[in-house]
Amino acid sequence: MPDDIVRSIATATLSDAWGLLQRHEFELKRQNGAWQKQIRETYDRGDGAAVLLCDLSDKTVVLIRQFRYPAYYRGETPYVIEVCAGRPVTLAYRPSCPRLRPASAALPAIALSTRRKRE
Questions:
Q1: Any idea what DSSP says for residue 76?
Q2: Number of neighbouring beta carbons within 10 Å of residue 25
Q3: Which residues, 6+ apart, have CB-to-CB distance to 15 below 8 Å?
Q4: Cβ neighbours of residue 29 closer than 8 Å, sequence gap 6 or more
Q5: Cβ contact 85:50 at 8 Å
Q6: How many of the other CB atoms lie within 10 Å of CB of 100?
Q7: What does each C-alpha distance from 77 to 62, 74, 80 come to in angstroms?
Q8: Please, are residues 18 and 35 in contact by the beta-carbon 8 Å criterion?
Q9: pTM, whole model, 2 decimals?
Q10: pLDDT tens digits along 70-98
Q11: Cβ neighbours of residue 67 closer than 8 Å, sequence gap 6 or more
Q12: What gap in Å lies between CA 74 and CA 71, rounded to an integer?
């Protein structure tokens, strides 16, 4: 993204306990050339990944159902169905679990990751 569309005004750290919560004030250049003041909060928990696990022979994907407090707080259904995600870890193959296969036999997966940026 070109640097000439955002002019930073101020950044304040609101919390750095569980993750980095910051409040950003900036001006955004609109399509008509006018500058508009914006305020946003960002929450950064560091490295993370999301993977959509699939079994092409069964034509199925693996999703998880997880409690999300913000959805609960807004009065929505607090259990959200989503792709497997979290901090990257190494998983061990267990022959005792018949649905799991060793990594060498696994199907290709697409992974998205994020990196924590601190200034």
A1: S
A2: 13
A3: 21
A4: 4, 5, 6, 7, 35, 36
A5: yes
A6: 14
A7: 20, 9, 7
A8: no
A9: 0.52
A10: 788 788 888 889 888 776 655 555 555 55
A11: 78, 79, 80
A12: 5
d(CA 36, CA 46): 29
pLDDT value for 45:
81
Instruction: Copy the structure tokens of residue 77.
Output: 């259904």
| 52 touches 112 (CB < 8 A) | no
pLDDT at 96: 53
Q: H/E element holding 71?
A: helix 69-73
More confident site: 99 or 65: 65
Q: Which residue is associated with the tokens 């005792």?
A: 96
Tokens 């992974």 locate to: 111
d(CA 17, CA 24): 18
User: At 117, which amino acid appears?
Assistant: K
Instruction: Express each pLDDT in 14-58 by its tens digit.
Output: 999 988 999 999 999 998 999 999 999 998 887 777 888 888 888
The domain spans of the chain are 3-44, 48-88+103-114
- Least Cα distance to 11 among 33, 37, 35, 42 occurs for 42
Q: Amino acid letter at 84?
A: C
